[in-house]
């Protein structure tokens, strides 16, 4: 890959994940603080969005994989994202469930479509995916830190307007600087039925919803948890934004080090290490101590850089090439939207009846048991492809 091309891919990834930080990281605080939803109501809204993401993501990735003009597909998707940001600025309790459905279809799917595109570019250009993706991490963190300050001084509306401007920049960069990647013409590429028939894909999906799913779903309570343990909403928002900025700086370093020093290591081993780091994070959350909670949050950066890099590598080792995009989408949607459909109501019920500590300890227990199971049942890399 030419250095100029790599620069534009990295810059676009930086800005794109900055937009992602606005529409995802501050979604729950916005619902809670501006729309006025309780934690239980937020859990319901998140679950609705997750359900529609589950129903739509595989379809979108399949369509994306077969498109000859993939740039146009992503641009249309980003235009829809801009519409969702505008809609969010005026949403209220009356229409929040309708918005949640659209949020799942448009917002929760856009990250995976973009990741599949950039990862495929990296593979075709013989570049480590982590070399491009790491800029998304730092972009996410920088915008989160800036957004926290903007919210305190100017409110959520200003932050959303900035998100619209950034989305327009991403659209222009993709239109002018990204090369198009054409589909290979394989009719099975990305199809859900082909993924379901692959035993390795199914096993990885089940493990992902149990470990990464629990890890992801329990994240929805972080901002309200900080409010409870600090007793001050403004202080909690400040800690929240700074903590997330710090953790994505760790994530940036993690991507960089993994890409440089661990690129030839066994994917299964380091995928399990990533699971272990994530499990430790949830344990630290259960302590209720602000320093330990913030320290635990930093482990996300370490975990995610390792997890995402080796997840792609692992998938490429245990499934055929034409199933990589579909398997990644399937595994990812189970670990994010699938989990957010299954777990938030359960966790919010535990929190309401027994408190945050009990909620995090339950999450920790699920992850520990699933981690031990994963060591045994995850297939080894570079083995024959198993069909169900």
TrEMBL record:
It is a multi-pass membrane protein. This is MFS transporter. It comes from Clostridium beijerinckii (Clostridium MP). One of its GO terms (cellular component) is plasma membrane. It holds the Pfam family MFS_1_like. One of its GO terms (molecular function) is lactose:proton symporter activity. It comes from the Bacteria. Residues 10-335 form the Major facilitator superfamily associated domain. It is found in: Cell inner membrane. The keyword Transport applies. The chain crosses the membrane at residues 7-30, 42-61, 73-90, 96-114, 135-155, 161-181, 202-227, 239-258, 270-293, 358-378.
